[in-house]
Amino acid sequence: MFQGINSRKQRGTKLVDSMSEYFSSWKQNLKTSKQNLVTAPGDALMAAAAVCYFGPLIRTARDELFRDWLRVSHSLFVSNTVPVQEGVSLHVLLSTCDELGDWERRDLPKDEYAVQNALIMRTCGNDRKHCWPLLIDPHGQAVDWIQALHKGKA
């Protein structure tokens, strides 16, 4: 009888210990989610602007334009109008670690410019059956990557 009680007590203790470990994780996730709700409008604005305007620009022009947008958004943030999350970038806003890892396995170059191009292309083609942005691809990298991405889907 006492063994049954002790075994239940031990299982209960393990359950409480495991729940307390999750508590700090849940608390951090809640804090992050609340912050993301505050910055969602500004983040969406930055992502939409980047997808619309980055396409034809070279890397340095993209960086300069994004810094200008961040400077303007931070000045608006001071007046409590359009907050943007800290450390924001196009790949932070529009992708996941899993997606980026999958793209790397399918031979997408790892540099920021290639990732931005892939995100713009994917965003432009989302939920559109035969719609792709104009790709100027003198080295054939985009074609190879798109073929690898859609291999086995046809």
UniProtKB/TrEMBL annotation:
GO terms for cellular component: dynein complex. One of its GO terms (biological process) is microtubule-based movement. Residues 102-150 form the Dynein heavy chain ATP-binding dynein motor region domain. InterPro entries: AAA_9, DHC. GO terms for molecular function: dynein intermediate chain binding; dynein light intermediate chain binding. Signal peptide: none annotated. This is Dynein heavy chain ATP-binding dynein motor region domain-containing protein. It comes from Nematostella vectensis.
